[in-house]
């Protein structure tokens, strides 16, 4: 195996591991064969009394019953998830409906993001567009009224801002280029990701780290850093769509199956179905295989005029055709995605130093890039409001 092939294999494994981690720390550990230390017996095993013959028979019967039930439950889960998979792919065939009903992306937000990318952008041109999106206006007003930013403004005035128009002027165009993509992606997040309790927060953290890493790497390489930040934020929109689709579809299909089992008085099936929950293995596979392609379709449907994202997304999904040159923004996004995943894996001690070295070598990180990223803040936007 050549070094490049080994690095490519490591990159693929770590990408999958990062997806597993989104769904839970213990699940990610299970997927790499981690054995929890609490499950290991130390020292001599405790002496146990000899079971009576009647107890042995009862235990054997319970085990047989338990094994049969587990098999039955696994079969029920397989049938359920085949129905869910069919329903999800049927919904994904109508991307306009996914954008409108699942993600809730309005046309106005794409227009605003596009406008922020051009030099002729003004607060006056943004104002009517923001007024049409009540949630965005509320978010901007809330932001400028946060104690931290009110303190920054107190040199001039500490008056409470109560209109989106005034908030836009206080925040300023440079800050809006970072703030509005961030608020948009947060607005599209699922309201709840139970039973994966930390998934929503990890999706938010992932998008933020993607965007900031992309911005930093772009600045070093003379690539438009606002384009990089915006696409870094939008890169996870496919994940968000799939999480929302899966959790909603699971609930709908599961309820229908439970109702049918009850009506047909199939007690064993009804009991097995009641024990089933959303499956992390199904969801991580769905995210790993489909999320980038869904992001590309959503971004294509947003019909940006000035943001040059379509060619980049095609390269990210399909790779670079032989004879073609990798686009500078594509290279930035590959590195940013790698680094944001690395941060999460490192925080949970799920990556070894040799794996990190191979991963960074595969994406050709420079020393300058790594040095800059090591000293960057990936949790907050570095903005000043005067």
UniProtKB/TrEMBL annotation:
Chain segments annotated as coiled-coil in the UniProt record: none
InterPro entries the UniProt entry points to: HDOD
Top-level taxon: Bacteria
Annotated HDOD domain residues: 102-308
Name the record gives this protein: HDOD domain-containing protein
Organism name: Pseudoalteromonas fuliginea
